[in-house]
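Sorry, any thoughts here?
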Amino acid sequence: MSELIFEERADQIHVKGEGPFKLACNRESLAGAVSQRACVFCGSRVVLYPIADALHLVHGPIGCAAYTWDIRGALSSGPELHRLSFSTDLQETDVIFGGEKKLEAALLELIDRHAPKAAFVYSTCIVGIIGDDLQAVCKKVSAAKGIPVIPVQSEGFKGNKREGYLAACKAMFTLMGTGDTSDIGPLSLNILGDFNLAGEIWIIRDYFRRMGIETVANITGDGRVGDIARAHGAALNVVQCSGSTMDLAKMMKEKFGIPFVKVSYFGIEDMAEALYTVARFFKDKDPNMLERTQELVREELAVLYPRLQELRRDLEGKKAAIYVGGAFKAFSLIKAFRHLGMSVVIAGSQTGTEEDYEELAQICDPGTIIVDDANPLELSAFLKEKDVDIFVGGVKERPIAYKLGVGFCDHNHERKEALEGFVGMVNFALEVHRTVMSPVWRFVPRRAGNRPDASLACGSVEERS
């Protein structure tokens, strides 16, 4: 393995087949390593802000407000208040004398101006240091304005992104149990951990509708405060991004007795199994549920498979690298690449657990590099070592790929193409094919010397064309 690996990071990297599997994870990032992982505040903001009819106010310096709607392509079918970014913009005098008055004034003005159904107030590192009492200010404003004003204890230095997920779940949980559930039927569920990137939650909701199931609340893509308040009336919680919302599912089970299932909507097998898992849960209440689900899957696969076989002819034998936020995506992506005849030679995540990585190691091929909480130095070294054809990641990984002359597929918050569901598998395959097969890669330095016409790499534009 590369000599560029920090000694302190060695136990967070494993090559399958080189000794028994053991991978350290879920610990603080190594200082100075410039981890790809985000902070607690980012984790909370990513989960909560797709709630479209709520006000989202960042209490802290203006720089923290960079985490806005545009870092995640979460779409709304109605209100778009979540697309506006608000900050108290704490200055030096606020740090010295406290920012509570500034926070109260900001909340009162914004609530009057935008009439939100609720307000979330995010604490940042500096707020945790100066000791502003968010809870007291939020309670006071809530009483004055008659809407929930919810503090999100998300000081960035408290841990890593996973701690932010927990802070978000605790904030949302305060809404639950306050809404009317009298009109919710027995065939009902909540969708947890889907953020409606490129409208994906609408695809999944349509599948459930065709199965005969009502979706009570989207948590949180295209989310509404009122739906979250009545989410406790659903019969089942379906959890996709388990890292971000599993804590909420457990809280709801403990207080309201709602069972939950873990699923993935990416790839063929996992999407089909997600629908079958839900159908099996409801089959006693609706004996025809499983039959309808099977028909739905057959219809979708009849369109999907011919397209995949056509694309596979070009992609057979190509190599891919994966580095994503939650490890659950990596499982589905490995299976998806196998349908395209491609092998995954690098697989990692920012927030995977020990259980996640053990499962990941089981489905990876021998020689695959498995990494937790990587940094740009490591990722660059691995990409060059494995000579990959495409790198799947997010906004922070894109520059690494392009600087190395490697194809890139955005599978994170910023994507504009729906990749969930059966139609999402087609979109993913098309994007991979267009990227890997692009003629531009013939001219990058790492590949130019391997071509029969390598001399053209140094020729004129006319010669290359």
The radius of gyration is 23 Å. Residues 234 and 357 are 32 Å apart (CA to CA). Residues 40-173 form a domain with the Rossmann fold fold (CATH 3.40.50.1980).
